[in-house]
Specification:
Blueprint (H helix, E strand, L loop, with lengths): L9 E4 L13 E7 L17 E6 L2 E3 L6 E3 L14 E7 L5 E5 L8 E2 L21 H7 L6 H7 L7 H5 L4 H18 L4 H59 L7 H5 L5 E4 L12 H9 L4 E8 L5 E3 L20 H7 L1 E2 L1 H5 L6 E2 L3 H8 L4 E6 L5 H11 L7 E6 L5 H5 L3 E5 L6 H7 L5 E5 L4 H8 L5 E6 L2 H9 L4 E4 L2 H5 L19 E3 L9 E3 L6 E3 L5 E4 L12 E9 L9 E8 L15 E7 L3 E7 L7 E9 L9 E7 L3 E6 L10 E2 L7 E5 L10 E10 L1
Length: 703
């Protein structure tokens, strides 16, 4: 409603945007003065001001849909003279915030989004007139006007005669005479009187000065004490209100750290999201893990030149993007618009380039839904991460584990209610671990650490997690040592125990879950996809590649069959070189031809001169042991021409053949030595990758 005539007002406007989509926001703005009331000269009554206003299409309006008008804070003669407006903004989807501001009576219109925000002054109190003495006299039952009231204040005259009864005239006269003589004798010039007056004056001035000093000191002390008590009361009220608001409005974790750790069995965490299946530390990698039921994942973070945190393992962009240099030299807009991850290099060109993902995006998306391991990788990212969690995600300790190296500090996370995971070096001593023990909830050990040392750390009595785990054989060894948590870059495969497929789709040109190169996070060991026709190869001397996606093979009553196409695009000067398959292993650990391997099995070779042969490989010697009658001569290999090889494994025999001629077979070989279900591709004796083999159209069938 309009202000009374003669009362000044200023029109204000304020617009908001939605924090979710960027469009017009919705919510309310509560406006109130910082004093209880304001009296305006010439206006009856007092103004308490303010109210709660809504945003319509992102614009602030009053209850009638009109522009909001407010009382200026500098009206001449207003009582109190010093006050400010307090605004409490509640935008849907965002945390409430408050701000203070002043309004100039001369302003034509004020944009509250552009005003200078102020700190509130001390509370101003309104001087309200009280009841007069005359009114009180009338209220007591007296009649008359103000003159009668004043006359009532004068009492009756005293009894002079009665007073004189107490005066001895003779004594009085004698005393007067004696005073006269004393004055004449001792103060002929009035010096005593003057000294007395001077002394009185000096004493008066000194008393006044001391009184003023005492008064000023008392006022200053009282003001300081009042300010301290007011600040303490304000802090206490804010803290209490924040705690109450947090209990009412902050998101509740659907999965807490404690609830997750209380689940039975080994815990699987996504390492770099799922960095051996999707481009590491991208939203695609995190989404892959969560979509497949992984309940915990790691978020490594670093900071750009403007203080924004991004999900990134390294301090530089060199390894994981097409850019180079330290992240903290790039502005936020440049990172968001220009930097793409290069997961295609290691995971296949079927991937589209993925943008980097801000940490806030992942916290808003997954905080409370899954357990998050947060680690600031660079020193300059530590304080920004702490500040972000404290100010924007105070509920984070319920579902966040603070992850850090043994050489860093754990004081802040422990003081702020976080669980902590301290990962150690293989050579970290017990003394180093003892120094951190009081601040650590979980220990971290690497898969390269010796089994004996892992068991010693497990024996310390706290849960132990290991990284980086990307093979089921690693899982088995770690569980045997007492490790209860696995940080895996292929968490879906490591978690599982059965085959995920029986036929390849390498034409998609993307790395599959369960693919186990000889080393992880290494481009040189990665499976290479041809641009056409679904061929794959291993661009590494004597390289191998485990096909865990299809393992362990589930045989039928009569066994199983592996069938795959193979070719050589170029031929070597030495046609005895070969490639093929390895199979029959009980474990998905690394296999390499002509090397001591951890577990035994079989390998099938097809030489470039057409010779086909089956071997057993052992754990005690580098060379294989030929099985069957001998070499099987098939047609010599033709460069670029596809060949189909097939292996049949029954409960009692094993047979290899090249399709195309009934005679190109080893025949059933009576050998039951190995019946494990893990197999993979092998470059065999190839050391020149230009003449390496290629494979496609893998199919597993039951016999």
């Amino acid at each position: 409603m309009p202000f009374p005539e003669g009362v000044p007002s200023v029109p204000v406007r304020y617009s908001i945007t939605s924090p979710a989509g960027g469009g017009p926001g919705e919510g309310t703005l509560q406006l109130m003065p910082t004093v209880p009331a304001i009296r305006i000269p010439g206006a009856g009554g007092v103004f308490t001001g303010g109210g709660t206003y809504r945003f319509t299409d992102g614009q602030l309006v009053d209850g009638e849909g009109e522009q909001v008008r407010l009382l200026p804070t500098n009206v001449d003669g207003a009582n109190p003279a010093v006050w400010a407006w307090l605004g409490i903004e509640s935008v849907n989807g965002a945390q409430p915030r408050h701000f203070y501001f002043a309004l100039n009576a001369d302003a034509e219109e004020v944009d509250l989004g552009a005003v200078q925000q102020l700190a509130p002054d001390l509370t101003q109190y309104l001087a309200v007139p009280g009841e007069s003495a005359y009114d009180a006299w009338r209220r007591a039952g007296n009649d008359g006007d103000e003159a009668d009231f004043l006359a009532s204040l004068v009492g009756p005259p005293g009894d002079i005669a009665a007073a004189n009864d107490y005066t001895d005239e003779t004594v009085t006269e004698g005393l007067a005479a004696e005073v006269a003589r004393a004055d004449a004798a001792y103060d002929p010039a009035g010096a005593a009187t003057a000294a007395q007056a001077a002394a009185v004056s000096t004493a008066t001035a000194d008393a006044a000065a001391k009184a003023n000093i005492a008064r000023d000191a008392a006022i200053a002390s009282a003001a300081s004490d009042a300010a301290t008590k007011a600040n303490n009361a304000q802090s206490g009220a804010v803290s209490t209100a924040a705690s109450a608001a947090a209990a009412l409005y902050l998101p509740k974790a659907l999965l807490t750290v404690d609830a997750f750790m209380a689940q039975p069995g080994t815990k699987i965490f996504g390492h770099r999201g799922a960095g051996m299946v999707a481009p590491e530390h991208t939203e695609a990698a995190y989404d892959y893990a969560i979509a497949h039921g992984i309940q915990a994942m790691e978020l490594s973070v670093n900071v750009d030149s403007e203080g924004q945190l991004w999900c990134l393992h390294d301090l530089t962009l060199d390894r994981t993007t097409y850019n180079t240099g330290a992240l903290n030299t790039y502005p936020s807009t440049g990172v968001a618009q220009r930097i793409l991850t290069n997961g295609r290099v290691m995971l296949g060109q079927g991937w589209t380039d993925q943008p980097m993902v801000p940490l806030r995006t992942m916290l808003d998306k997954y905080l409370g839904r899954v357990v998050l391991f947060l680690e600031p990788k660079g020193n300059d990212a530590v304080v920004p991460l702490q500040t972000l969690l404290s100010t924007s995600y105070p509920h984070a300790p319920a579902s966040v584990i603070w992850k850090a190296h043994v050489g860093t500090s754990f004081t802040w996370p422990k003081n702020n209610g976080f669980r902590t995971w301290c990962y150690v070096d293989d050579a970290s001593s017990d003394a180093v671990l003892d120094g951190k023990d009081s601040l650590v909830d979980y220990w971290g050990v690497s898969t390269s650490m010796s089994s004996a040392r892992r068991q010693q750390i497990v024996a310390r009595g706290k849960p132990v997690f290991s990284w980086p785990v990307y093979r089921r054989s690693q899982r088995a060894a770690l569980e045997a040592d007492g490790v209860v948590g696995l940080m895996s870059s292929d968490p879906v495969y490591v978690r599982g125990t059965t085959a995920q497929a029986t036929a390849s789709r390498w034409d998609q040109q993307v790395k599959e879950s369960g693919g186990t190169p000889m080393s992880d996070y290494t481009e040189a060991a990665a499976l290479k996809f041809s641009e056409t026709d679904g061929w794959v190869s291993i661009n590494r001397s004597r390289g191998t590649y485990g096909l865990g996606r299809y393992c362990p093979i589930a045989p039928g009553a009569g066994g199983y069959r592996i069938q795959i196409e193979m070719k050589y695009d170029q031929l070597s000067g030495d046609l005895a070189v070969h490639g093929g398959l390895y199979l029959g292993k009980n474990s998905d650990d690394v296999y390499e031809f002509s090397t001591l391997n951890a577990t035994p099995g079989y390998h099938l070779i097809l030489r470039q001169n057409g010779v086909l042969r089956l071997y057993r490989h052992l754990t005690t010697q580098t060379g294989g042991v030929a099985i069957g009658a001998g070499d099987i001569a098939t047609d010599a290999v033709v460069a670029g021409q596809s060949m189909t090889i097939q292996v049949d494994v029954t409960p009692t025999t094993i047979e290899a053949r090249r399709l195309g001629n009934a005679g190109w077979t080893t025949g059933p070989i009576a050998d039951t030595t190995h019946r494990g279900g893990y197999f993979g591709l092998s470059n065999g004796s190839i050391t020149d990758t230009a003449v390496r083999p290629f494979w496609r159209n893998l199919a597993i069938t039951q016999l």
